[in-house]
């Protein structure tokens, strides 16, 4: 790639601080500014990483003409508003998941990208995890054969997380299990049907009016004979943290390990074999390769909860940074782009709607960019 650099501003310094050193070492990025409402936290992170440009106000950050792109890591209810503000201010946007909390917000972001010609990328970790890159390599090499069915799950106990998570409908944060099944097949979701199961504690239900402990959704792929099933739980369901996907194909199938840190399984016909997933740091610039195997968030004794529970998100963080920066440098569309991000996000939004209606089939909107 050419040697020009993109001035990045990171917004939200909880999970967002994890990405600071990656941008600092990427050959085509300049870790230019950080934004955090809490001044003490802003200065703590700014001093720790040597970042001079600091903002407590997102709107003031957007007025800075030297900011090329923002990477948004704020609470999920802020994602759509801040993405739209940034695009309308002339900034490229990378945003942590989910893209938005409503279908209409997703539609507005897709429209803003089309109107401005700017770049939007949802920073979905699982489709850049080593597990996904391994299965993708097997599939694209022909080893798996024809895809027949896909299944994914994301189970997590959210007790102790910030208050806005309490009682969140499980499928409202489903991108980690929706994205890999759609991404592997290079497909869009056409319609969904979802069932809720079980009941969470009464005090959790009132916030969002969602009673379900578990939501399980079937996804029909557009222009394809494929379907997938995804399962999501957030509270009152006993299970070790798990972001997983299984792929069933004609020659070989892949099943995610049942217990974290144990080997996954490849089935060749009816013969199973445990497999160690390789790392894919070689796909990255040398300067950021080491970030696939270690957390960088604020020292060894202060790892972010998502990194501890998520086993480092499969080494995905530097891959996400590289895809976003590369897309900007090469003036190409990143993966996932705004349209794909909207399709992935709206699977979860509409799946919950389906569950509340007893499994009613709901069609995904058309987010085609003309």
Report the span from N to C terminus.
29 Å
How is the largest sheet built, in terms of strand order? 3-2-1-4-5-6
Radius of gyration: 20 Å
Q: Approximately what portion of the residues adopt beta-strand conformation?
A: 15-25%
What percent of the residues sit in helical stretches (DSSP H or I)?
A: 25-40%
Number of strands: 15
Shape estimate: globular
Structure description:
The chain is α/β, with parallel strands linked by helices and 370 residues long. It contains eleven helices and 15 strands. The chain has helices at residues 20-25, 39-49, 58-62, 79-88, 103-116, 130-140, 175-185, 202-208, 305-309, 317-330, 338-356, and strands at residues 6-11, 29-35, 53-55, 69-72, 92-95, 120-122, 147-155, 189-197, 214-221, 227-233, 242-249, 252-255, 264-268, 271-275, 362-363. A six-stranded parallel sheet has the order 3-2-1-4-5-6, with helices on both faces. α4 (79-88) runs parallel beside α5, α5 (103-116) runs antiparallel to α11 (338-356) and α7 crosses α11 (338-356). Residues 6-122 form the Gfo/Idh/MocA-like oxidoreductase N-terminal domain.
What's this model, at a glance?
The chain is α/β, with parallel strands linked by helices.
Feature tags:
NAD(P)-bd_dom_sf, 370 residues, 31% helix, alpha/beta, Gfo/Idh/MocA_Oxidoreductase, 6-stranded mixed beta sheet, Gfo/Idh/MocA family oxidoreductase
